[in-house]
Amino acid sequence: MKLKNKGKCVIFSAPSGAGKTTIVHHLLSQDLGLEFSVSACSRDPRINEVDGIDYHFLGLEGFKNKISENAFVEWEEVYTNNFYGTLKSEMERIWSEGKAVIFDVDVIGGLNLKKIFQEDAYAVFVQPPSYEELEKRLRGRSTETEDKIDQRMEKAHKELAFAPEFDVILVNDNLEKACEEAKNLLINFLENE
């Protein structure tokens, strides 16, 4: 795969509801030279989601067109006809600004990115303190149907098994502590050439 301006990237992955997005937003608010890689997806935006900020909402046909154009670094079909991926153009834009890319992706996407970028990537698995706490957090969002919660919990059960394949497992049992630990881990990775 040919990418221009290749630089470093940081990957945060976790089961839905583990807190990875909150941690990533905290890291972006720090002065660490990071910029968020906005993923592309085939689904419709949720309430309060903005195209180009939360995701690049391509629609199913648009996403499939980008696949055929070889426009993705990686992509996957997370659920039937529900695709997510990383656009090459998004990474090149961030690297051209002299920044490191930070990803907030699902577990399989995170492992795919780690395989692609190898030593230029640092992969963090955000782990909930327990399976029960994860379900409590998902229910607390009040954004999902019962079927979606069941689907996410089933997927989470499988995803937790992949934790050892990441560079580090960050247990999010205390958000403030997890954010500080994540920041220290990234400083160490970004400062070492």
Instruction: Estimate nothing, just give the exact number of structural domains.
Output: 1
According to DSSP, the number of beta strands is 9
| Strand percent estimate | 15-25%
The SSE string, one letter per element, is EHEEEHEEHEHEHHEH
Helical content (DSSP H or I, runs of 4+): 40-55%
Low-confidence residue ranges: none
Mean pLDDT across the residues is 88
Largest sheet: number of strands, sense, barrel closure? 5 strands, parallel
And the CATH topology?
A: Rossmann fold
How many angstroms separate the termini? 22 Å
Structural class: alpha/beta
Describe the fold and architecture.
The protein has helices at 20-29, 59-68, 88-96, 107-117, 131-141, 146-160, 175-191; strands spanning 9-13, 34-36, 40-41, 56-57, 72-79, 82-87, 100-105, 121-127, 168-171. It is α/β, with parallel strands linked by helices. It has one domain (9-191): Rossmann fold (3-Layer(aba) Sandwich). The strands form two sheets. Strands 2-7-1-8-9 form a five-stranded parallel β-sheet, sandwiched between helices. Helix 1 crosses helix 7 and helix 5 (131-141) packs antiparallel against helix 6 (146-160). 35% of the residues are buried. The model has no long low-confidence stretch (mean pLDDT 88).
Which characteristics define this entry?
alpha/beta, 193 residues, globular, 7 helices, five-stranded parallel sheet, Rossmann fold, 22% strand, four-stranded mixed sheet, 9 strands
